[in-house]
Amino acid sequence: MIIDRETVEKVARLAHIQLSEDDIGYYQRELGSILDYMQQIQTAGEELPADWRADTAGVSCPERDDEAKHSHVIERVLQSAPKVVGTAFQVPRIIE
Description:
Number of helices: 3
CATH architecture of the domain at 5-47: Orthogonal Bundle
Oligomer: single chain
């Protein structure tokens, strides 16, 4: 896709950046490449079979029950600390 100069200049104004003549040409090519790639991504979904996604193929996806469990991570981490205050490491004061 070809992006015109005015579009690049408008995007630059919206982004509050100044572009040189070389930059404008560069960003015309780059933005065109990005839009070409986006177009490829949009058409990729049309080429896939209908059952490529479990949520659209009618397949049930069993979910596990959501249960809150205590992980004991804090206790294990604090065991390796030289000094502990409550649930935090105690470190030497560096600013007085």
